[in-house]
Each structure stands twice: as C-alpha cells, then as structure tokens.
Amino acid sequence: MAQLGVFRKKKSAGYRFFLRFIACLHLFMLVTSIVQAADVKWGFWAHKRINRMAVFRLPAEMQYFYKKNIDYLTENATNPDRRRYSVVGEAERHYVDLDVYGDSARITLPKYWKDAVQKIGEDSLRKHGIVPWYIQTAVFQLTEAFKARDPARILRISADLGHYIADAHVPLHTTRNYNGQLSNQEGIHAFWESRLPELFAEDYEMWIGEPVYQTDIAEQVWKTVMASNMASDSVFEFEKQLTASFDPYKKYSYELRNNVLTRSYSREFSEKYHQMLGGQVERRMKASVKMVGDIWFSCWINAGQPDLKTIAGFVPDEKVKNEEAAEQQSWFQRLLRVRPEGDE
After folding, report:
1. Is 122 helix (H, G, I), strand (E, B) or coil?
2. Which GO molecular function entries does the Swiss-Prot or TrEMBL record give (predicted)?
3. Residue pLDDT, tens place only, 161-178
4. If we measure between CA atoms, which residue out of 294, 262, 118 comes closest to residue 198?
C-alpha cells in the first residue's frame, strides 16, 4: 500500500507538470500568434527604412562595415519590438509618459538616469517609460563595442539603438494616451506610426547629408522627446476633427496582408489626415534618420575612430540565429520554470 501511495504521488506530480506544460505551451502559441498578427497587421516598415537610410549618411570609414551589413541593420531594426513579448524590462525602453510629470517635465526630470532614480525612484520611472535614459545607455554600449571592435555587438546595438531613437521621435511614444484609448481614438498609434509612412513615405525627401558629431547626446535626446510630445496635440486634434466631418463608412477599408483580411484606415481618410498634419510624419521620420546617423557616428568618434575594415569579414547570420534560439529557449524556460541543462 505504501508503494501504491508513492506511485500515486509520483503520478499526481507528473500529471500536474504535464498540465502545466500544456498550459504554458498554449500560452507560448498564443503570444506567438499575437506577435505574428501584429507583424501582419501593422508591419515595421518605418523602423527598417530609418535604419537603412541612416547608413548612407555615414562617412566612408564607417560605410565600409555598415553598408556591407545594411541588410542586417534593416531587418533587425524591429528586434526590440519583438523582444517586448519575451524580455522583462524591454517594453519601458520604447516610450516615456511625459504628461505624467506635468507641464514642467523638461525642467523637473533629471537628464541622467542615476539622478532620475535618486529623485523619482526606479520603479516609478520604469512604470512610465525610460526611452530618453535608455538611449544614453545604448550609446555607452555601442561606444564600448566600437572600442572592443566587436562586430556582433556593434551591429546588434546599432540596430537596437536606431529603433529606440526612432521611437523617441514618435509623438505617441511620449504620452499616456499612446493609442487614443483615453480619447476614444483607439488605433491612432499604428495609424500615425505605420499606416501613414507605408502609404506616403516613398515620396518623402530623406537625404540629409553627412552626420554631425554630437557633443551632448543626452541633451539632444531630451530635445527630441520634448519636440515629439509638443506635436502630440495636433496628432489627436486633427484626427478628431477629420473623423467628425468624415463619412464613418469610408473611414476604414479592408485589405489583404499576407493572406489575412485586415481592417485599416482607408486611403482617402489617410490622405486627408496626412495633409492636415502638414508634413509632420515626414519631419519626424527625417529627424529620426538624422539622429540615428549622428549618434552612430558620434559613438565611433568617441571610441577613437577604430578601423572597421579589420572586422569587415564578419558574417552575422549564424550568430544571430544562435542568439535568437537562445532567447526563445530562455523565454520558454521562464514559462515552465525548467532548469536548463548543466545547472547544478
């Protein structure tokens, strides 16, 4: 009987583990489907475009390496968004809710992370977004990668940094009402950030010229998020005005994207909204390209202008695959709380 009791306990424990495994597997599949749906529904066109255009601004000494890896920098410009679903602490790197801190946010918020933590507290900062501070962290990381002449880190951090800088230029990344959920304008985030660039950015004038060395990157980052926040009022107000005067049956249309029928803002509504914004999307996108190029260049200068020809033979493909596989494994292990092989 004692043996039978032990057997039942083992069976019960094994059954509970099996149920937990199945539940976590379903969760994994659900989140994966959400990520895939987001890719299909909104796309990452603007982020890829910004990183790609920034490469052409670099001096010849940097282009030798960056242009050779332009496809990597383009395709991996969206990695931070993908990590939001799997990496704890990633989401808050993409935004900062300046309206939480009141009208005097630029004056009251410390420029540097350590000062901000001392004044406000890390938990509160992370709750409301840390993009202006995290960009500074990524700048330090890229500078160190240049000093070490580590091609994998240079490419990975450059791609990520381009993403965070671009996010800082989006007005809706600087407010609590980031998707119009507080003003009955849900969906406006992707409308401004994805739909409009996908429709009209091919006609944008994106040539800016050679990069400019930035002596105070932190100051430039803060100027950027403040300018983005100041532009947010028109983002909401113009959409509200246009919606009030527009035939509600013509505001949206349905399009096939990757064989999925998706509801989007109609071209007619998008064109009128784009006109009302008066080139705002183009200006913010162009400013993103400028700042990405400037900061990549400044990191290289601050690292002592290392000769990138010595690492030009690096091929990132296999290493990237291994890193992505390791990241997915880490996520799945956290879901299941499974001890990885080799741990004691």
Report:
1. helix
2. hydrolase activity, acting on ester bonds
3. 999 999 999 999 999 999
4. 262
